[in-house]
Amino acid sequence: MKRFLAMRRLWFFLVPVIVGVLVFAIALKTRPSPEQRQAKELTASVRVIEVPRVTLIPRAIGYGNVKPARIWQAVAEVAGKVVEIHPQLKKGAIVAKGTVLLRIDPTDYHLGIAQAEADIRAINAQIAELNGSEKNTQASLKIEERSLDLIKGDFERKRKLHKQGTVSQAAVDQEERNFLKGRQSVQSLRNTLNLIPAERDVLNAQQAQHQARLESARLDLARTEIIAPFDARIAEVNVEATQYTGLGKVLAVADDIAVAEVTAQIPIGRLINLIPPHTAMPDDTAGVMSRLPDFLGFEALVRLRASSIDAQWPARFTRINDTIDPETRTAGVIIAVDDPYGQARPGTRPPLTKNMFVEVELKGRPRPGQIVIPRTSLHGSNVYVVNSENRLEIRPVEVAFPQTNFAVIKSGLKGGEMIVVSDPIPAIAGMLVVATQDDDVSVKLIKEAEGEGGVR
């Protein structure tokens, strides 16, 4: 009886469950199939620019310290006591060309001039005396030669008379003695005249010697004044008034303020990029080096960037240093700034003074028709190009050389193509993109490539 009641309760529980399962199965079989939807293609939004073709101004940056183009050392060329010093002969002061900075006692040199002049006057007197003696001797010689002719005539007549027996031998001998005496007198005068040129040469040599001593004394006197050879700024003073200075002592040092120079260290690769490819070097290498600024055609600019100053000066490329730094692989490029003090503007541009650390920008000759792109659009050696079907193309390119924010493309891109300047994630070749033109990036790229804006 109990077993029957248990089976009855089980059937009461199972029947509803079985009925529910059957109803659910019938519903699954009889319901309509769900509508099939086609999957939609994913797209990516990107920013693009049109690849520009520009007139490129290649640039390179270097840094260096300012130094004067010329440094003058005031070296004592004579010895003596310093008797006068210019009040502006002080470190940091600016003096004009021709300023007498100091004087050394000239007394000894005035005496030297007086002595040399006296010696010259004495020699001149001796030369004048010799000239007079020469004239007198020449006159005496003429007289003696005439007298000798007369004596010779008398001697010849008496010899003839002696042969005829009308004149004694003693008279002939006496006349011969007179003739020989006359010849001796003439010969003596001729010897005297022959020696006069040698005596004159000796006196002329002495005169030249005294004249040279006079010029040396005058030069020494001029050297007692130390005169500024150009407009200069005093860098060093090593002498005091009344101090004795020896020959060769450096009394002061002054820097030229007409031209300042900067030796900027620039990486060799950056420097080479300023020179157009395939530039032929003429056979006259020495001649080219002498006119290197004209041959290369670099333009230069010097900048000073400090906490509250951002100043710049127009400059000239003058030459390249003779050595390469083996550690940094940089070349020293020497830049000149004309009138670095005259270009000063109170509050905005200070004088370009010695040891200022400045930035130098070099610009090469313009290169028309160059393809440039932002450096951020480079992905290794590839760029993302949006084709005419608005699909992404991953294209390899060859970079000629990079600049600060852009790269110059040698091959792989054409002007007018659209490149992606944002970073699509993921970047899949052939993916559909929605492109938005980024005018700000395009304008900035063109300005920088054409020589505006900063560069590194």
Main β-sheet description: 6 strands, antiparallel, barrel
Report how far the terminal alpha carbons are from each other.
104 Å
Helical percentage: 25-40%
Task: Kindly report the average pLDDT value.
Answer: 85
CATH architecture type of the largest domain: Orthogonal Bundle
What is the CA-atom radius of gyration, in angstroms?
A: 53 Å
Classified by CATH, the class of the largest domain is: Mainly Alpha
Count of helix runs: 7
List SSEs in N-to-C order: HEEEEEEEHHEEEEEHHHEEEEEEEEEEEH
CATH topology of the largest domain: Helix Hairpins
Approximately what portion of the residues adopt beta-strand conformation? 25-35%
Strand order of the largest sheet: 3-12-15-14-13-16
How many runs of DSSP E, i.e. beta strands? 23
- Overall tally of structural domains: 4
Q: Which class best fits the helix and strand makeup?
A: alpha+beta
Shape: elongated
Model regions low in confidence, pLDDT < 50 over at least 5 residues: none
Describe the structure concisely.
With 456 residues, the chain is of the alpha+beta class. It contains 7 helices and 23 strands. Helix 2 (107-164) packs antiparallel against helix 3 (169-223).
Structural features, described:
The chain has 456 residues and is α+β, with helices and mostly antiparallel strands. The chain folds into 4 domains: 46-57 and 369-449, conserved putative lor/sdh protein from methanococcus maripaludis s2 fold (Beta Barrel), CATH 2.40.420; 70-104 and 236-256, no CATH class; 108-223, Orthogonal Bundle (Helix Hairpins); 259-363, Beta Barrel (Elongation Factor Tu (Ef-tu), domain 3). It is built from 7 helices and 23 strands. The chain has helices at residues 2-30, 107-164, 169-223, 268-273, 285-290, 292-296, 439-449, and strands spanning 43-50, 53-56, 59-68, 71-75, 80-85, 94-95, 100-104, 225-227, 232-237, 244-245, 250-256, 259-267, 299-305, 310-325, 330-338, 357-363, 367-374, 382-386, 392-396, 398-402, 406-411, 418-420, 432-437. Strands 3-12-15-14-13-16 form a 6-stranded antiparallel barrel. It has a 5-stranded mixed β-sheet with strand order 19-18-22-1-23, with helices on one face. Helix 2 runs antiparallel to helix 3 (169-223). The longest helix is centred in the first third of the chain and has 58 residues, at 107-164. It is elongated, with a radius of gyration of 53 Å. The chain starts with a helix and ends in a 7-residue tail after the last helix.
